[in-house]
Amino acid sequence: MAWESVLDEQGRTYYFDSVTQESTWEKPAELLTDLERALLTLHWKLYTADGGQDYYYNEKTQESTWEIPADVQSYLNGKHLDRQSEVEPLKEKAVLEITEGTAEFKPIEVESIVEKEVKLEAPTVPVTLADDSALLNPPVYESLEAARAAFVNLLRANEVDATWSFSRVMKEFIQNPIYWALPDALVRKEIFESYLSTRTKDELLKENKSKEKFQEAFLAVLANYDEIKYYTRWPTAKRLISDEPIYLHSAISDKEKRGIFQGYVDGMRKAREERLAEVRKQATSELSEYFSSTLELDVNDSWPTTLSHILKDPRFRANKNFVVLHNMDILAMYEKSLDRIHENLYKQIKTLQERTYRQDRLARDAFKELLVELKAKGKINASTLFKDIFLVICDDDRFLDLVGRNGSTPLELFWDMVDEEDQVLRIKKDIINTILLEQKFNLAGATFEEFVAFLGTLNDVRVKEFTLDGGLELRIIRDKILQDLELQREQEILQKKRYLSGLAEDLVSYLLKHHQILNLSVDAKFEDESVQAKLKELEIYKIMLDVETSEPEGIDALFRGSFEKFTLYLKEEQKKIVSHSNPLDTDRLKRFESRKRGFSEVTAAPTKKEVELDY
To answer: In the prediction, which pLDDT does 115 show?
Structure first.
């Protein structure tokens, strides 16, 4: 052995054997000083007080002292057993003092057989020896084989199986004298492993039935490896635990070991997810509190701007729980906060609307009162325009207070009143018009005074509803009735003109169809008496005269226009015939003229029945 102390990157001391390439956190027995051996043998430990002064504490008797204990001093003075005979017990006790946490750092993968087992599994509780004299005088066997057999029987008697580690064997049997019959720990380790690999078939079957026991021990081994994480795979784990007795010598199949390992990492993953979920839940709760009470949001800012402001906020950065959150978590909370802000704004707007609604209604009622006052003064009637009263109301507070408010405007309220007046006036106008028609009174040929006087002579209940003092109401009614009569007359004239225009078009069609019978040629003139005589005999002419007999000259103008249109169409038709003729077909016009001469003898006008049928 060539042990030497080495400092790691963090300034911690560990021990490295350059020959065996082993490393350990605990000081090897070979390097222990006489004082350290004495303290370890007699259950004393050296500690440093807060002031930097050393003191000694006995874990067995719970005694403490500032000075070197007397029994330790006696041990150092040679009053104890020979130092060399104590090397093996000291090594065994030294390794039992190593704690589980010291296995955290492993500069070199290869460790001593004994210390590796102890470092991973030995408890921190020191062992109390029941009878030191028995251990210092172990049984002596005839040969090494006999001592080995006794040690194997000890293991078998205590049902040691692959679930045991060598450190557990040390802890369980260190007080047994048979354990010390083999003075070398390496030999005991070798026998232990040989025992595990040479168990009988019955022992293997018995062990195989105790799967729960194996699973508990296997999980304990896995838990000792900090390198095994929730994401570790089985091939990686096998490389880590390849030297473990429970892995090498167990009768449990590799498939079952893998299943136990998978359950172990699944549990680690689930525990991690639960921890993360709890942290995220706490972080989300704190983020909600941050948004509601700390962060000042501007609804006009874009999301990137808001996120940049949040991430730079010292109050946000000071909360370490927020590191587990993603930007999407912040965005979700931001959207919730916006919804809350919008809801608050909506409530404020609704409250403001409810407050202003009453004020708007009062303003409308006040303006309506103003309109009623103007109506009572005779300034608003069915024919009043808004411009007629604007100069009267433009400086009134009741008008000014309503301008710009929600609801009906001053103009709309004004037209509402005018419409009401117009509806009432229409009813009264219809009553007066009915009376005039019944009495056959010619309103168009009478003055307003004659109209009022006529109504006064009537003994009609309907007339009593009117004030016959020549007021504005009767004057408006008379004007509206005259307007209706004038409009009716204009519509009748327009209808007659449309009707006569249609008859004139029918006359043109009739002449084009029957001009041969009437002996009307292209050269016929409307001024010719013979032509006019033929036209006046037509039934359509008589129909047109019946429509409007008061203006016969108008009928003549329509007839003239129809006849001229007829001759124009006839000339265009003749030009078409001439333009389509050729030298080989020159007799076409001759045949046309002969047909005309054949019909020229017919001079009688068609009868009324013929006109109706052709028409």
So the answer is: 40
